């Protein structure tokens, strides 16, 4: 088992727990929505860069994925 | 086993293969656009979306997120062990990945059962039309992913296997794509309205 994968997994679980905590303890507001979607975007990037090893890929793929994620996130929060 | 070195920095060889990444981008754009339209409708009818969202069980959704993340973690380890030539360990991680996917399917089925029992169908309202369509399409991807996992795991464990790193990475990329889609679906459907 690779240590970096284990650390990434730990982070993903912590971020999921944080999302649950935020959605349970705060009423739905613009700030809550930004926080929840922001945490999901971080998890999305952790999976793609660490688990899918996108960090090893050509910059074109990294920039394209970040751009697509950015567009979706903006479409949701704006 | 084919383990030749791949130059991932070459634009044509992202980990998982260029065809798989084209599929991943198309899927993300399709689900992404559907979610943006869903949010647009949500802004038009905030009360309906809020009441509908409250009928969803976000705890089940969060548990399913953990199942998929854990499954993705095992998948990444399966690829790592395959590259290290530890076929048995890699196969074990493949099976653990499948277990995570299977648990996701079971929990999703329970959720669907409760919804159908409560008379909540795609015709109930616009929120549930999106809920059923988006989650069902995602579920189909998870089922397809499981079939690919079973097939790849069977292929790599054959005595005269020609399964290479590219095959394992493509299989893993498809599986992780299911995680990525769920990470977008879960907060939008279950949490933000």
Automatic annotation (TrEMBL), chain A:
Major place of residence? membrane
Q: What InterPro entries does the record point to?
A: Cyt_c_oxidase_su4_prok (IPR005171)
- Enumerate the subcellular locations listed in this protein's record, separating them with semicolons: Cell membrane
Where do transmembrane segments lie in this chain?
30-47, 59-77
Q: Decide whether keyword Cell membrane is in the record.
A: yes
Q: How does it sit in the membrane?
A: Multi-pass membrane protein
Would the keyword Membrane be found if you checked this record's keyword annotation? Answer: yes
Identify one Gene Ontology CC term for this UniProt entry: plasma membrane
Q: Which UniProt keywords apply?
A: Cell membrane, Membrane, Transmembrane, Transmembrane helix
Please identify the protein, giving its name as recorded: Cytochrome C oxidase subunit IV
Organism this protein belongs to: Flavobacterium xueshanense
UniProtKB/TrEMBL annotation, chain B:
GO biological processes: aerobic electron transport chain
The UniProt transmembrane annotation reads 12-41, 61-80, 92-110, 130-151, 172-192
The segment(s) forming the Heme-copper oxidase subunit III family profile domain are 1-193
Question: What residue range is the signal peptide?
Answer: none
Question: One Pfam family for this entry, by name?
Answer: COX3
Q: Which UniProt keywords apply?
A: Membrane, Transmembrane, Transmembrane helix
Give compartment(s).
Cell membrane; Membrane
Q: What is this protein called?
A: Nitric oxide reductase NorE protein
Q: What is the lineage of its organism?
A: Bacteria, Pseudomonadati, Bacteroidota, Flavobacteriia, Flavobacteriales
